[in-house]
């Protein structure tokens, strides 16, 4: 909450104090990224224009050279601003410019910093290649701009714009946070913030550490709720480190007893922790995933087994929840956790930012809601 209000203040003061003469009008997108420890420094960004939602400025910072910002080909110079909100030490930038429609998608650009009230060019590149790494004299700047001076340089396409200090990018997502597929094929991002990691809960030490996935898209028609037969898949290659093959459901009286105890003590026990039948997968590089409430585990999925990205590991269910104890189909969903270096992904990240981070993380899946869900 606090971070959000700081952001709005920043944005407000920027908008109010910035002279339009110097900044130009704010671009078609102004956005903010604060993914906690996932990126080195929270920043906002804006662009002079943007061709389309799918080729927007967000793609400039996703560590994927194949996604682009594509300018709208206005008859004016184009630019991209990264604003850290406070001074950062910077000594290099990297700009990725693909070949697009048979030619390099920008012929020339300048790197600028705001010097008093004017943009000052500190570097010019008129020999643009695919990956352009520019070492700069060390500077302390809070705002840096990539400027395309040629008006005839239309429809500029940029794959990445990284600001670096000693080789470490301050404004991009490390590779281990991207390239996964969603654990429910066709599954959709939770529509309620309470279903995201970091949401408050009365048990589990007060914090919900996973994603609650209830809906998936259909080939035709509106999204529908998950049912017992829906498949769950590994989001990436990995090794199974837990598979509850000997799981036994709680009776209703056990469920009530453990629920009361968890609420009284403000903790969740390792045994009878309401996660039900679980599978955990180690994906390497410190990234792990955990599947909860499964109705069954696919044969062959056991500790030590290797799985491929997209390989089925089990079926969705409601194990560990009251629906299972009552023997009905109430509350069927996947509770899915991502753990990075032993901490759940989402710790200290606001819901609006978490939604963006999940788009990065599951870059192999389309998580956008295609329409209004049934039921
Ligand atoms: Zn959950």
From TrEMBL:
<dbReference type="InterPro" id="IPR008979">
    <property type="entry name" value="Galactose-bd-like_sf"/>
</dbReference>
<dbReference type="InterPro" id="IPR050570">
    <property type="entry name" value="Cell_wall_metabolism_enzyme"/>
</dbReference>
<dbReference type="InterPro" id="IPR000421">
    <property type="entry name" value="FA58C"/>
</dbReference>
<dbReference type="InterPro" id="IPR011055">
    <property type="entry name" value="Dup_hybrid_motif"/>
</dbReference>
<dbReference type="GO" id="GO:0004222">
    <property type="term" value="F:metalloendopeptidase activity"/>
</dbReference>
<feature type="signal peptide">
    <location>
        <begin position="1"/>
        <end position="18"/>
    </location>
</feature>
<feature type="domain" description="F5/8 type C">
    <location>
        <begin position="18"/>
        <end position="166"/>
    </location>
</feature>
<keyword id="KW-0732">Signal</keyword>
<dbReference type="Pfam" id="PF00754">
    <property type="entry name" value="F5_F8_type_C"/>
</dbReference>
<dbReference type="InterPro" id="IPR016047">
    <property type="entry name" value="M23ase_b-sheet_dom"/>
</dbReference>
<protein>
    <submittedName>
        <fullName>M23 family peptidase</fullName>
    </submittedName>
</protein>
<dbReference type="Pfam" id="PF01551">
    <property type="entry name" value="Peptidase_M23"/>
</dbReference>
């Amino acid at each position: 909450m606090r971070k959000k209000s700081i952001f709005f203040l920043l944005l407000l003061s920027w908008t109010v104090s910035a002279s339009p003469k110097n900044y130009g009008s704010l671009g078609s997108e102004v956005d903010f990224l604060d993914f906690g420890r996932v990126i080195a420094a929270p920043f906002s960004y804006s662009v002079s224009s943007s061709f389309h939602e799918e080729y927007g400025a967000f793609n400039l910072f996703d560590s994927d050279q194949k996604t682009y910002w594509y300018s709208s080909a206005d008859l004016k110079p184009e630019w991209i601003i990264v604003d850290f909100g406070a001074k950062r030490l910077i000594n290099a930038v990297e700009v990725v410019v693909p070949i697009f429609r048979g030619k390099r998608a920008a012929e020339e650009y300048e790197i600028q910093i705001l010097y008093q009230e004017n943009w000052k060019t500190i570097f010019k590149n008129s020999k643009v290649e695919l990956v352009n790494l520019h070492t700069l004299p060390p500077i302390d700047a809070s705002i840096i701009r990539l400027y395309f001076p040629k008006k005839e340089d239309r429809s500029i396409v940029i794959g990445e714009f990284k600001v670096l200090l000693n080789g470490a990018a301050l404004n991009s997502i490390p590779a281990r946070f991207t390239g996964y597929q969603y654990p429910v094929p066709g599954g959709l991002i939770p529509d309620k913030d309470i279903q995201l990691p970091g949401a408050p809960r009365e048990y589990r030490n007060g914090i919900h550490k996973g994603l609650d996935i209830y809906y998936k898209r259909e080939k035709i028609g509106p999204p529908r709720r998950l049912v017992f037969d829906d498949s769950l898949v590994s989001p990436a290659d990995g090794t199974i480190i837990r598979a509850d093959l000997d799981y036994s459901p709680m009776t209703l009286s056990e469920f009530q007893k453990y629920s009361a105890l968890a609420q009284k003590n403000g903790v969740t026990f390792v045994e009878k922790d309401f996660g039900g039948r679980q599978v955990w997968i180690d994906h390497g590089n410190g990234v792990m995933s955990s599947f909860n409430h499964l109705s069954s585990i696919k044969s062959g999925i056991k500790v030590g087994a290797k799985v491929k990205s997209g390989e089925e590991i089990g079926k969705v269910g409601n194990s560990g929840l009251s629906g299972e104890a009552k023997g009905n189909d109430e509350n069927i969903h996947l509770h899915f956790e991502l753990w990075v270096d032993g901490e759940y992904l989402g710790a200290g990240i606001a819901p609006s930012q978490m939604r963006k981070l999940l788009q990065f993380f599951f870059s192999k899946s389309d998580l956008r809601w295609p329409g209004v869900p049934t039921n």
